[in-house]
Model the fold of this input.
Amino acid sequence: MNLTSPPAPTTTAQAHDQTHDQPLPHRVDPAAAVAAARPHGTPAEVLGQTLVMAWRALKKMRRNPEQFFDVTVQPLLFTAMFAYIFGGAISGGVKAYLPVLIPGIVAQTVLTTCMATGVQLREDMEKGVFDRFKSLPMARIAPLAGPMIADLVRYLIAAGLTFVAGLLIGYRPGGGALGVLGAMLLAIITGWSLAWIFTWLGTISKSAKSVQGFSMLILFPLTFLSNAFVPVQTLPGWLADFVKVNPVSHLVSGTRALSNNGTISGEVGWTLLACAVVVLVFAPLSTRSYRKHL
Amino acid sequence: MATAGKAVEAIGLRKDFGKFRAVDGIDLEVRQGEIFGVLGPNGAGKTTALRMLATLLPIDGGRAEVFGVDVATEPHRIRQLIGITGQYASVDEDMTATENLWMFGRLQGLRSADARATARRLLAQFSLEEAADRPIAQFSGGMRRRLDLAASLITRPPLIFLDEPTTGLDPRTRGEMWDTIRGLVDEGCTVLLTTQYLDEADQLAGRIAVLDRGRKVAEGTPEQLKASVGNSTLQLHLAPGADTEQARQVVLRVAGAEPVLTPESGRMNVPLDTADLAADVLIGLRQADVSIVSVSVSQPTLDEVFLALTGHGAESGEDASHGGAPADSATTTLELL
Done:
């Protein structure tokens, strides 16, 4: 899937036959239309519709650059802030703390980024154009999955900028370029998968504000009650137990192993498994409640 | 089981919003190739009924078929047979007209080049070419409405739902919209439109159903509907110096009714049982050498129609207390077919 070059209506990139404008059939034939109407879309159609919705979301991002505020400012600010504030206390120095901190921040930014998915979907659903999407013979999952594909760009920016910020203040990842790329990929996959939870919240909530509220409630404990910023050994036993099962911890550990050592640890497997479970549960839930929302 | 000749068949259509019954057992039958008007005040259930037929709202009771396809069980097929244009433009505000039409075309399975060609054709057809690359946010109300209608026609669906297509439009734009709607039928489409204006239903629709508080209170051709309301009024403006008394005599003799003299000099209103009598009055005046400046026959207003059909005016149905008992509006129903 080539997401960076969505089909553009104004340029003629496709090599379709454009020799003549569409011939206009003279009369509308209801019987033929009824015969041609199929009860379901094909998987290829569903994919096509999803990509069109992704194109729409990307177009919106380009026209509203303030949407990128969270994925640009947060990684830079948090990385610098946490490194200089906690570095000395936790690891005895900024440079020694960076291998711990950077993967943690990557996980945190990607998670906050995927929270925005639900809020934006909720806002979008209020608009008149969603009425038309509902009246078209298109897959109900397309308006949900399309924006999530476009959001991959946001995860990429969030994860990429965090590493750049780390590199600028002295982080030298032991895993090399490949390890860092692997870590970013893992974070992006996780962000995309968890975004389904927030998409589901978006489809069941009354307003964008309530999505925001709920999301913070879920996200804050998950990111801070993990090993993202502190070593687990320093925590009291009951908290350490929670931190160990927290999926965010698995993500952080997996990302650390990749970027610091270039190794794919078992944590990566656990993370991907958790992602698969989340998608399998929340994608159908979201589609169902979106369909009911009509 | 396809029922040939019918575009829409709804039986006992019902919709509840909590305790409020918005649509209360409506039967509708729309024949292929006609313009069918659903007339009623705000809150009568017009839009709700339309949205149920268009698969945008679940049907709570009764059933509906579009070209013989069941609306409740085969929504995906229905969506391939209909186009819908609502009261509020359902197009993407952040995109240009071309982008909107291209996107809706792509979502309905057109290839990119075909979607582009269709967008161009529709923009030309709806005189929107100059605004093709402007964001919708800068569009006027009439332009929005036209684009919205264009977006409903991309795949040339055989049935078009129009929800109050001209509400809020200026008279000239309204006339253009009427022409467009007539053009759709010429191409073989069937149109089901809702409106608050008797005038609009009269101009466009071959048959009309009148809704009130979620129920159908009358159905028939515009002529039947208006005839049931009775009197139209002939307004005469006599030429300066014309003999008012003589004119009065003529009217009395021909129409059998006393003309009402209005305060302006030389003007009188004549109540008529049927509009046909207007011609007789005019001939009578001509024979009596009473010359006139202008003449008009006024149609009954929606409010008068409603008064005649329901015993109350065309106030918003939401305000009217509409509890469990649908009361006597059903018993005084005037079935015109």
Remarks:
- Residues 316-337 of chain B have pLDDT under 50 and may be disordered.
- Residues 171-186 of chain B form the longest helix (16 residues).
- The CA atoms of residues 8 and 66 of chain B lie 5 Å apart.
